[in-house]
Amino acid sequence: MTRNRLEAFSDGVIxxxxxxxxxxxxxxxxxxxHELGALTPKFLAYVLSYIYLGIYxxxxxxxxxxxxxxDGAIMWANLHLLFWLSVVPFTTAWMGTHPRAPExxxxxxxxxxxxAIAYTILVRAIIAEQLHFSGGRHSKxxxxxxxxxxxxxxxxxxxxxxxxxxxxxxxxxALFAAVAVIWLxxxxxxxxxxxxxxx
Amino acid sequence: MTRNRLEAFSDGVIxxxxxxxxxxxxxxxxxxxHELGALTPKFLAYVLSYIYLGIYxxxxxxxxxxxxxxDGAIMWANLHLLFWLSVVPFTTAWMGTHPRAPExxxxxxxxxxxxAIAYTILVRAIIAEQLHFSGGRHSKxxxxxxxxxxxxxxxxxxxxxxxxxxxxxxxxxALFAAVAVIWLxxxxxxxxxxxxxxx
Amino acid sequence: MTRNRLEAFSDGVIxxxxxxxxxxxxxxxxxxxHELGALTPKFLAYVLSYIYLGIYxxxxxxxxxxxxxxDGAIMWANLHLLFWLSVVPFTTAWMGTHPRAPExxxxxxxxxxxxAIAYTILVRAIIAEQLHFSGGRHSKxxxxxxxxxxxxxxxxxxxxxxxxxxxxxxxxxALFAAVAVIWLxxxxxxxxxxxxxxx
Amino acid sequence: MTRNRLEAFSDGVIxxxxxxxxxxxxxxxxxxxHELGALTPKFLAYVLSYIYLGIYxxxxxxxxxxxxxxDGAIMWANLHLLFWLSVVPFTTAWMGTHPRAPExxxxxxxxxxxxAIAYTILVRAIIAEQLHFSGGRHSKxxxxxxxxxxxxxxxxxxxxxxxxxxxxxxxxxALFAAVAVIWLxxxxxxxxxxxxxxx
Lengths: 199, 199, 199, 199
Description:
4 copies of one chain form a homotetramer. By secondary structure, chain A is mainly alpha-helical. The first copy, chain A, contains 9 helices and no strands. Chains A and B meet through helix 1 and helix 3 of A and helix 1, helix 4 and helix 5 of B.
């Protein structure tokens, strides 16, 4: 029951973040295609962040499926993750307004980085709880997630992208989009093995 | 359980979209009926989009009732549908602000079109999963939905409406309203046969 | 299950309405008590609408407890009610900005009136479904709600208040506050008899 | 079931409050670090309020776990608490915009104070219901919460902080942050004894 409430609360927050982000897309003052076209960078920034939040929602879902008990550390690690996700509409809006400037691209990468770190902390908190409960013998999630190559690669790319934004922001955008593609595939490690476990 | 979470998340997003849309209805600066009356096009645009979102919520509900397992394709097809629904407040606001201009009416039709296509993709993803799981023999949803005449007609009308907006936007509005009327009746095909299945 | 989803969706919409309403309370430009004090009418309007929405949430809760099956009429009657509730932040903001003008007070009364009528329609839709299902013999809700004196009185007061706003808006405010007080007590008719039914 | 709906509704409202608060963080007009840096006070105010709302969500969760029946008093005490929490984005935004002024800091403390009082009232309403139901013999929550030292200390600090804001707002900020630290630890009294009860 406690897990359900954590799940429901997280879903609620992610649903709101994903939806209010589009509030930044204010319709243009005029009614021409030309004026609408000026919103293209903002729209693309919105699309990218929407995909990222969809990925987080999806993986968060798989993650919590391995959890049986929630302790204080997991609860706060989860709120910490939601905090950085809640910052994404802000960094998205800044990046969308100044697509040619390096600073907003770097800040966007920073918000993704912090969310990725927060996700890693949440994974650790869950593993710690599972080990604690089983007297150090077993963690379902640790078995499933293995070395977490994808997580480490993502963090490296966010840092690289943020730095390369000062060469040209387009490099940063390419890298951020690449990470989204990497993650678009749901975490097969977890889902496959969960399926195996069932059969 | 997984289906419930998908349902709850979708409901959350639709509930937020339907509600934040009204935030575009900013009260007028003055306090006279005259100034309030200037908001009429915006209000009518809001009413139309509210009905559309209600229809999507309703049919989405019927749709998911036929689903037993969620795979990655269904999850992303669903997020894709929610994406285009989340764009509706934006296109509604633009159309409501410029009721006599063709471009906003055409864009509104475009957002409805994309939502309709996304809905069709979701239907396909569910059918594919059901066929896959049953070894290609059976899909509950495919049996229920049949040729999906209503869906195809809607898509045709959105395209027509978007094009006719450049003759006069009022034609587009009439067509968009007509689609809403067509769909206001919940998908009896599904609900009736589900009832049959129960009895 | 279907009832639960209707309940959850309605709760979501009401939770969002109740919360975004406060977004209209923009902090003043300066930092003095004087500037803050200028927001008093807006704050009081917010308090009143918050109470109204709390009442609707509460009674809606009691109402749906008597429902066992949801048909299309109930679903749309419910969406119709949520529509008028979603308009309340708009009318609240207009009234809060122009506390001395009659038009915003009258419009606020109109939005309450429409919500009350929508609530009555929802009650009728539920009773009709219950009678239909039982072959016209029995409706749990009709037995509980009786003559619905409170609902009829409220509608009469909204109309009166809206009209008296043109004498002075303060009369309207007094009447709208009076209705809130009448309803603050949850619908004891329903809750008491439900309790009786259990014992 | 009734408790679940109260829980779900409260979670929804808190999730929305926590998320819309960040909407106050509007991206700066320019794209420089300098302009971004000007938002630091607003960001820190947001962080503090986010933590507070996380604490309330967390403790609210523990609180409702002791509840078995919801009466009207509990429902309205809960809505009263949510009301003051919904005011927090407003006071946060004012404080974040004027970090050197005493009035916004004092008002922020006032909103925290009212939320704390509302929480205490909710605790009392739950205890009263439990005593009433057991014929005055037993209240699970009263046994768990004991003297509620932390609650009383918090209220005292909010009042002190609000007053000291007029010496310098930084004292107020230090005190408000201190209360957050005190509460960051979930209410071990309740959770521990609940655990004991299970074993």
